[in-house]
Amino acid sequence: MTDGILGKAATMEIPIHGNGEAGQLPEDDGLEQDLQQVMVSGPNLNETSIVSGGYGGSGDGLIPTGSGRHPSHSATPAGPGDEVARGIAGEKFDIVKKWGINTYKCTKQLLSERFGRGSRTVDLELELQIELLRETKRKYESVLQLGRALTAHLYSLLQTQHALGDAFADLSQKSPELQEEFGYNAETQKLLCKNGETLLGAVNFFVSSINTLVTKTMEDTLMTVKQYEAARLEYDAYRTDLEELSLGPRDAGMRGRLESAQASFQAHRDKYEKLRGDVAIKLKFLEENKIKVMHKQLLLFHNAVSAYFAGNQKQLEQTLQQFNIKLRPPGAEKPSWLEEQ
Prior knowledge:
Residues 46-83 are annotated as: Disordered. The chain has 341 residues and is mainly α. It is built from 7 helices and 6 strands.
């Protein structure tokens, strides 16, 4: 039965063994979060509306919910407005009922997996890629944090060097006996500031690119992953429901329930397989994009840092030109000296 239901070589049903005793299970901080995730997408009753005269009628008779009209206490027969109100209530009830059934099945499936009483569908290769993405994102977030700290330190250093250069220049004018010594120290600090501004521009560009990769590109893929994981849970919940019904008696009433369960299972299976394909495609493009972006950014970072500490002002400027980075004028607002073309 299971082999016929799954029908995909890339996935497999993994049984979860356990005695089901909560006292012997390790604490799982993610269980409450997973349960909240199951419950988070409740039915939106505010958008419910009914077209008078039936679902196929024109939009002229559209009556939104929450109209605020009070029912009449007269003895007049029920009119079209009462029928519409009953239709709205019935539609809301159906929405809540379907959401409640789906939530119950998914919660039951989640608990059965966590307590070792059920099975879950696993695409081993895809889940390995997803876990690798999450680990990569954590590491890139650490690099991003360190990069931001570096820009803050560089900016503070530039402010100190600028102030020190001004102090040396002032003392050079007021100390004739040390004018030359104060003078070349002032020039040195001025040159260091100029090179530091160039380095800061390169580091800001590096940080900005990492930030886009982490908070937009990777996050977009992980949002699709979350949808895929929710669809997987629904798929397994309806698969389990269908398997349990298949083991029951085959009377007339049960045949109807079995057909309904088969249709629900097929719908959730299609949704699960579509999202699985979407995740695989996004992971592939994300990896290609990550390599392309990081190849450029790591080359920029290396060349800029090397040129700065070697005191090679010309190479620093060439590095920024190579990556189309323009510095803001010294009077621009801090902390970014970066302006992309």
